[in-house]
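Narrative progress, year one. The postdoctoral researcher (J.K.) led the effort to move from monomer predictions toward full complexes, under supervision of the PI. The following entry was the first complex the group processed end to end, covering 670 residues in total.
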Amino acid sequence: MKTPSGHDVYGIGAEYPTAGALYEAAKRVRDAGFKRWDVHSPFPIHGMDDAMGLGKSWLSAPVLAGGVTGLLTAAVLEFGPSSILYPLIVHGKPRNFWTVPAFFPIMFELTVLFSAFSAFFAVLIMNGLPRWNHPVFNWDRFTRATNDGFFLIIEARDPRFTEVEARQLLEESGGQHITLIHED
Amino acid sequence: MADAITAPDVVRAEASDSIESKLKRVPLVLNRRNFRWITDRISGVVEEPAPRWWWVTFAITSLTAAFGLFCLGYQISTGVGTWGLNHPVGWAWDITNFVFWIGIGHAGTLISAILFLLRQKWRTSINRAAEAMTLFAVICAAIFPGVHVGRVWMAWYLAPLPNNYGIWPNFRSPLLWDVFAVSTYFTVSVLFWYTGLIPDLATLRDRATSKIKKFFYGIFAVGWRGSNRHWRHYEMAYLLLAGISTPLVLSVHSVVSFDFATSILPTWHTTIFPPYFVAGAIFGGFAMVLTLLIPARAIYKLQDIITIQHIDKMAKIILLTGSFVAYAYAMEFFVAWYSGNHYERFAFANRVLGPYWWYWWVGMLFCNCLSPQLFWFRWCRRNIYVVYFVSMCVNAGMWFERFIIIVGGLHRDFLPSSWGMFYPTWVDIWTFIGTFGIFTSLFLLFIRYLPMIAMSEVKIVLPEADPHFQSAEQHHPVAAGGKERT
């Protein structure tokens, strides 16, 4: 599929005047059975995940894995040298089983450190970021998505996508400035 | 942008008598500002040319910072004897400054993490600047323990690495815990802060007029496009970062206090230290947040976003944590008396009547215990000058507190024959002043180049951000003819 100017079509986008209008439109697009589409807003809209038919984010899984890795790293880092490689007696203080809690602060800190890194990198990787460019930026109105604009874009890759049907759906849901967005 | 610049006409109206209007929540953003106004006003701070005061202030602070760095260089090249350290006072301004700066950082993390988990929506107006303050304060703090070891090139001994004899650091030592706590704290604070910045950097990227700005904001915005499929993971990441930062911030100053509490020195060897230090850190940190934000809000006309309600709430936190601190001070005296320990009793009598007596009377008693009590009164919490005066008192008082704990604890040893005093040298004094230069220079650069208020988060607290928002009248008592208390 081509735009009038001869480019490949990425999708069709519409702008909505308010967060509420975008929310209602998202529910209609979800119910129409589209799969490859997205909404864009300057801030996260409460309840939009349900309106789009998305479940809860599974980002907590990599963060848990990161936290466990941090805990184990700290355990190896502390018990390795202190119990195996070079056990030290400092100030004649005991170094038996009951001193194990003295290792907890560093275990805690590394658990936190590794969890934070995994949260940070997981959110980037799961969102496919960073990336240099994206077809949605070809739409000149789209700069308002980080200011006060609310956008809904249905991708041409969606198996249910036809320009007529998608345009009609966006019009009926109150979309304005409906535009074909080109790929490159 | 012309209409956005007009001075905010804050409505000061009498509270209406009807119960309904009394129960109405005061809006967090005043004067019914919309999304675009928020974007324009906050981005405008970064986009407009730097005002003259900025250049003048930055020149002064960066010169101060440079002189501080010169003092550090002099101390490193000449030796730790350029400071006034001696026996028995082996820790003095260096560790006082370290604890002072690291404590200031805690307010930023409290605002960004703990208040987020507690769903305190008012935090959105102040969290970005407070988190930036945290980072800069931790940078200033990190200078001192690194340098006070004397031979800085041996500072790698702090790292968990074996030395040339194959000996590892003692992992049971609070000093090593401190290395992990502070470095983790700094790293996690950077990650949390940057994660929060990404959507706002995208806003600046989309508004940028020059290619260079578009390139750099574009790089750091990592291609953010406000997609809800992204927001879904982003919000979870933000929640988890807040969740792990909450115990982290409580742990950092607890670990700092262990440096003292695990020793045998009277006034240091107490179990009250971790909560006492954490409360003091938040107390001092909020004072610094107010010190920075009260001028910033006036200069950049942000009174509709950082409203008097926000200042009122921060004043309440200062009152709360200041009262914790006052209670801890009182409890230290009680325990010293109740323990019957000769040395403890002497140490606390010496705190009040000894050679550093006025540090206690001015710093701990007046600045930290008495001055925040003004915030019991609503008028004081809402008077900018009173709030500024108290926050300045607390800034000074918290430095005095750390000095009293450290030098006050050390200068009277168990044996009177080893008693001594501490006198700072010019290097001590200028290194400390230099860290203020570093701190304020970094903060000035921050407000020049980055959005000092989290735009995407402030937008969420507007009523029209709610997808079920119906009409202006329903949510805005003022629009409906009701009266608004600000």
